[in-house]
Amino acid sequence: MLGCATMSAQSLSLDSCKALALRNSAAVKNAALDVAAAQEVKKQAFTKYFPNVSVMAGGYYAASPLIEYSIDDIENATARQWLHNLYYEYGAAAGLPDRISLCENGLTAGATLVQPVYMGGQIVNGNKLAKVGVEAAELKAQLTEDQILQEVEKYYWLIVSLREKEKTLQQALVFLDTLERDVTTAAEAGLVSQNDVLKVKLKRREMEANQTKVDNGILLANQALCQAMGMEMRGNLTLSDTLGEVSEMFDWGFVDHRTAVQGRKEKQFGFRGDVAPSDGRGNGLLRQPRVRPLLRQRTGIRDVAGAADRLVGSLAQTERTRHLGPEGGKRTG
After folding, report:
1. d(CA 236, CA 223)
2. Is the CB of residue 307 less than 8 Å from the CB of residue 210?
3. Is 283 helix (H, G, I), strand (E, B) or coil?
């Protein structure tokens, strides 16, 4: 089995991460076992159509006969005497006993065959329920696979987006370093106040704190992705995808809400899926991104760049005000 130490040395795509998750997921394996169990129950229910054959066999050996009867037990004296004479004349010479013993030892065996003719629909309905049980187990297995794949995709694109944010934060830190040197030089020349220098330093500390948060988020997302794939984490993963151009990130499509609900696995179980509100014209359209749905978090990168632009504009406005005055004219005296 590949470990994350080996996986970190190669570039992983989204498809390879999904394949590893399906192969190593205990939930997927349990769902497959549930399907196999439901199929066996269906086979067992089908056997109810056939005759039920039962075979029984037994043996016994008694310490003394259960039934014992002799000539002396005959109540009729004439018959008793006649049998005695007959036995002594012929039976004794033939070696026959003068008493009869029954049920001292023996074997018993029996067989029964029961063919159901009418059971009030019990067998038919039982087979229908067994068939429904197989279908439900298969749907549950598909739903489990979908949940595992969704979880893998979520953490995959989260790592990609966080790494793009990390790049932006690094560029912002480089920009703030240059800006800090320029503002410090301007403050030494008397062009700006020391308060402006402190503003730049404060913004740089905020960027460093944000970078720490992003690094921690990447670490946690790597751990979550390794857990979803059923692998041990021994280093950061190397992913093959990047954000790319904004126009290539989303492929929006319009799907009718009735079609979307009917296509969900939960609906096939009999659950009521979530339906998006209509668009105000009675169309009831549900906007669904078909690829990379988690990349909306990229707006955080724009916020960082926008904050840096606003900071530059504020410093420029401060410097222009000091040189020209609040009304736009040059200062006097």
Report:
1. 9
2. no
3. coil
> What is the Cα–Cα distance from 136 to 44, expressed in whole angstroms?
17
Instruction: Classify burial at 192, counting beta carbons within 10 Å of its beta carbon; exposed 0-12, middle 13-18, buried 19 or more.
Output: buried
Burial class (CB in 10 A: 0-12, 13-18, 19+), 259: exposed
The dihedral region occupied by 111, where left means phi > 0, alpha psi between -120 and 50, and beta the remainder, is beta
Largest separation between any pair of C-alpha atoms in the chain: 167
CA distance 48 to 131: 14
Average pLDDT in the chain: 75
Cα–Cα distance, 66 to 105 (Å, whole number): 9
Closest CA to 54 of 111, 109, 107, 117: 111
124-130 long-range Cβ contacts below 8 angstroms, 24+ apart: 126/45, 126/48, 127/42, 127/45, 127/46, 127/48, 129/45, 130/38, 130/41, 130/42, 130/44, 130/45, 130/46
pTM score, whole prediction? 0.57
Supply the pLDDT for residue 130: 92
Confidence at residue 298, expressed as pLDDT on a 0 to 100 scale: 40
- pLDDT of amino acid 310: 60
Tokens encoding 124: 């038919």
Q: Are 311 and 200 in contact (CB under 8 A)?
A: yes
Query: For the CA atoms of the chain, what is the radius of gyration?
Result: 45
Alpha helices by DSSP H, listed for the chain, are 4-7, 14-24, 26-46, 77-86, 92-94, 122-188, 194-229, 246-249, 257-262, 265-268, 299-324
**SS3 call for 232:** coil
